[in-house]
Amino acid sequence: MSFTPYDWNQSIQTRMEYVEERLRDGSPVVGVSIDEGILTVSIHRAQRKVYEVYDRLVFGGVGNQSDIETIRNAAIDFAHREGFQRSPDDVTAHRLVGSVLSPALKKAFGDPFTAPFVFRGLFAELAERREQDQFYALGYDGEFKNDSRYSVVAGSLEAENRMIDLLHANIDRAQDRSSAVRLALEAWATGRIHARRPSYGSKVTEEEEEIEIRTVDQTLREEIAEATVEVGLLDRNTPRESKFRLLRADELQPILAEYR
Amino acid sequence: MFSNQSGDFLGLLDGLPGPDGRVTDAPVSHGDHATELDTHGTTVLAVKYRDGVLNVGDRRATANMAVMFDRAEKVLPLDDYTLIAISGSFARAVEIVRYLKHAFRYYARRELQEMSLDGKVSEVSRAISNNLPMALQGIGAFIPIVSAYDPKTNEGRIFFYDGMGARFETSEFGAAGSGSERIRGAFDYIIRTKKPFREMTLEEALQECLILLDIAADLDAATGGFAKVLPVAKAISRDGIIDIPTEQMRRIVAAIHPREDAGLARPVI
How far is CA A128 from CA A14, A34, A144, B126, in A? Predict the structure, then answer.
């Protein structure tokens, strides 16, 4: 059997559809930067979604759990090796995503003889000042984009765009921890709703068109009642050794009260 | 595509060039010059107090007869509930502290759970015994005291080590460095005539420790006194690490040496 450029093109297309289909159900992750630090917000039913990578680096992902684990561990390995051998100051999201993870993901995606990563990941880096915080959204094909105030990963690109639109229009509301978490949750719900709509590569039937688009508020109420809201805080001003922590249930309670 | 290991940081560094917790090639011959290369930290002490553990250290670092540095930080946090007080070779100690910090955090981040206290103090043993070939050559030996707040038993704990990495747990106090031998009996004297350290408040324990450090500085040439720079003091309690405020230190030191604030020489005893 011969392997022509056409076959390669075809295999990339097939792999993309395979990955996109599996990502669609993933619970989005939203990162928002405020004066207090960086908030990384998601809602989970099973595994945790938000992880500490290094002193000032946090990671949240959508996709296959074992792929997320592989990327998470590779990120932690790189950060600690580099942070010890050089300095913690040399461990940046830019280096981690740009020179370590992205080329490896691209290679795996383009290789027709291995399973592609089912993965979209959000990396956030805490700086001294809010304006300097960095976000990187990394895709399964190695493509990544860099933002400063907020960023998202979700089940589909369409969903991500809707979430970014919402954050862009409302980011001035994110003044403190409570308002930022609520805005992030609204973005989360927007992403959730749109990722589940039939879109990419498939024909939309009339029946599907009629599927009721639930409101953000309704979605949030249902999800918060059934699943767990997870908020990671990279604290800019803490005197503690660890800057990262997950907000406790008693801290989230007043923020989520309006959805209960 | 990616390596896959357990939470073992030493394993992660395996095969890489550069500094780490291990010493592969110990210097084979040194003559009399080796000790001049090696900067030493001197006196550090740890005592339990009512809510946890208090660590105090002087600020002097010496190389042979020279004072290299008078603002050395010898009490360092390893994580939010563990402190290490270092004496002996500064170069090795600082390197190994960096190693331990990364090892503990690496494990916690990879495995998504804290390393156990027993695991942490064993890791310190391993680092000391890996350093042994160098220490046997006459340079690079260091002895730490590890203090931690144990969340299981809700109390402070103190561990000290010998040069080979043997670990001992102490019930009241630990001290290391050149000045520590001079004051060792004084700890027992305080416990017998006043009260056990673990029944003292932070203020009381701090006061006793600063007097002990002052005596060590009087009796040991390598231990720095209070005349130029305040000693370093940190405590660990249920709420994590407490940096003792400069104001509090200044007040106690002033009470020990009433005229020091005026910049005058100390009264002759």
Answer: 44, 12, 24, 36
Find all residues with CB under 8 Å of A45, minimum gap 6, and list them.
Answer: A27, A226, A227, A228
The amino acid present at B147, given as its one-letter code, is S
Decide if pLDDT at A209 tops 50: no
What does the pLDDT look like over A35-92, one tens digit per residue?
Answer: 999 999 999 998 899 999 999 999 999 999 999 999 999 999 999 999 999 999 999 9
Are A85 and B16 within 8 A, CB to CB? yes
Which residues of chain B neighbour A242 with C-beta distances below 8 Å? 79-80, 105
Residues B191-235: pLDDT tens digits?
999 999 999 999 999 999 999 999 999 999 888 888 889 999 999
When pLDDT is averaged across residues B138-145 and rounded to a whole number, the result is 89
Measure the CA–CA gap between B24 and A168, rounded to whole angstroms.
Answer: 55
Interchain proximity B99–A84, CB inside 8 Å: yes
B13/A81 Cβ within 8 A: yes
Closest Cβ–Cβ partner in B2, B98, B109 for A84: B98
Given B1, B2, B18, which is nearest A85 (Cβ)? B18
At A131, list the tokens. 């304006």
CA A191/CA A49 separation, integer angstroms:
16
Per-residue pLDDT at B63: 85
Asked if residue A192 lies in contact with residue A182, where contact means CB atoms within 8 angstroms, the answer is no
Query: How many angstroms separate the CA atoms of A39 and A213, rounded?
Result: 28
B39-60 confidence digits (pLDDT tens):
887 899 999 999 999 999 999 8
B35 is annotated as an active-site residue: no
Residue whose C-alpha is closest to residue B76's, from B58, B90, B55, B60: B55
User: How large is the ipTM?
Assistant: 0.91
